[in-house]
Structure formats: C-alpha cells, structure tokens
Amino acid sequence: MRQPLIAGNWKMHKTAAEGQALAQAIRQGLQTDQVEVVLCPPFTALSAVHAVLHGSSIRLGAQNMHWEDAGAFTGEISPVMLKEWCRYVILGHSERRQHFHEDDEMIRRKVAAALRHGLTPILCVGETLSQREAGETGAVVAAQTRRALEGLTPEQAMGVVIAYEPVWAIGTGRAATGADAEEVIRRWIRGTLAEQFGVEVAQRVRVLYGGSVTPENIAEFVCRPSIDGALVGGASLRAESFLGIIHETARAKA
Ligand code: PEP
Q: How far apart are CA 170 and CA 168, in angstroms?
C-alpha cells in the first residue's frame, strides 16, 4: 500500500509570518491521518513553519537545493542545511528547468545528493505544450524520469516521490484529465521505473499529479490506481482550499 501524499508548493509566496499563520491554519484544520501532508515554503520561512509543525504529522519540504554539501556557491542552499528542517525537497520543478536552466544532469546530482542525506526528493517531470502537441509526451517524461534516477540502486529509487506535472497545466487553470494523467504515469513513469529498477520499485514508488489541482478536481486524479496524490501550487496558498484537497483525497482513497 502506498500512502497518499499531498504536497503544497508555496513557490515564491509567503513571508515567515504569513507562512506561520498558514501552517497554523492547516495544522488546526487537518482532519485525517490517512494522507501524508507536506508543506514546502520558501527557504526563509522554513524555520518559522518548522516551529508550527513541531509535534504534528505534517512534514516540511524545501523547493530546491544544490547538490554539494558546502562550497563557494553564492545564494545556494545545501542538503546538509536542509536536513536540519526538512524531510522532503522538490527537485527539477519545471519553473527551475525553464527559468534557471536546470538540466537532467543537474537534477540527477540533486536527487542523488538528497538521498545521500536522508531527504526524500519530490522529482518533477512533465512535457511542455509544444512537446505534447508534437506527440512527444511519453518520450519526454520517460527520459526525464530515467536520467534523474540514473545510478541509483533499486532501494534508493524506492525512496523517491515523482510528480507528473505537465508544464501547460501548471498555474494555468487548465488541468490534465484524470485519464490522461493516469496513462502517462502508468505507462511512461511506472513503465520506465520497471525497466530501470524492476517491477517492485515501479509498484512501490509514489507518483503524484500536479497542475491546476483544486478541491473540485482532485478526486478525478486520486481515484486512479497509479496516482497517489498531488503536488499543489496555487491552491496550497489558502488553508481552506489546501485542506479541501487533502480531505477529498482521503475520501477518494478510503
Ligand atoms: C506547481 O507549482 O507544482 C503546481 C502544480 O502549480 P499549480 O497547482 O498552481 O498549477
């Protein structure tokens, strides 16, 4: 059994004080222990949100990290620093790939570094609109998955969470259909994992959908057998909508 997981990516939103208030509201409103919940605030709010979550089952995640432990990398944050606060780290988000030119090799190094330090990567993969229109979705998603996990042992690969996030669905209000997301995840993500690491890893890894998820559409995704939850951007910035997504997931998976 794979435990459902809902992770909130706050992106570049929320000061420490605002993050503290949002985390407090989510902690107070959470009514299920069937869904693992992860909050990923900006680095500057990690400490404040960590204090709010102390003693609860809600986990903390970061949105990015460097692959080196330390060094002359101005502006970067290392896995050694993150593991003081976080259990999870989002890696390879399409906004990092697009705006900061992260490539598959950088993401592979980050995934390996996170695992080396006991952090769980939430590895994001997904095609752009032009890739989709060119019929390249499967090839793109399979290649991103395979390259990011290259060199891992099956045991390490089992510890990764993958988020399928079609780029055209992120922040656009235009979510994929549940059937489409299920097909990509089953065939191109779990299929790639099976080829690379074997069937057991393919069955054990948790895979999320991300892209314009709301309390109204989440059930459409999490009712599918290959989809274990969601990576949520916009709707994670308000307690009411984020809690709605968590509680709908608990209902759908019950
Ligand atoms: C994201 O940032 O990972 C995301 C899925 O954003 P949104 O839910 O706003 O589409």
A: 6
Q: What angle do CA 64, 70, 74 make, to 5 degrees?
A: 65
The pLDDT of residue 203 is above 90: yes
| Ligand 1 site, CB within 6 A | 9, 11, 165, 170-171, 210-213, 231-235
Band of residue 8 on the pLDDT scale cut at 50, 70, 90: very high
Q: What are 128's two structure tokens?
A: 């752009």
* Residue 15 CA to ligand 1 centre (angstroms): 19
Task: Give tens-digit pLDDT for 209-239.
Answer: 999 999 999 999 999 999 999 999 999 999 9
* Tally of CA atoms within 13 A in the half-sphere of 147 that contains its CB: 15
| Minimal-distance CA residue to ligand 1 atom 7 | 233
**Is pLDDT at 123 greater than 90 in this prediction?**
yes
State the closest ligand 1 atom to the C-alpha of 232, by its place in the atom list counted from 1: 8
Helix residue ranges per DSSP H, 56-212 = 79-82, 94-99, 104-116, 129-133, 137-149, 154-158, 178-184, 191-197, 199-204
Q: What distance in angstroms lies between residue 233's CA and the mean position of ligand 1's atoms? A: 3
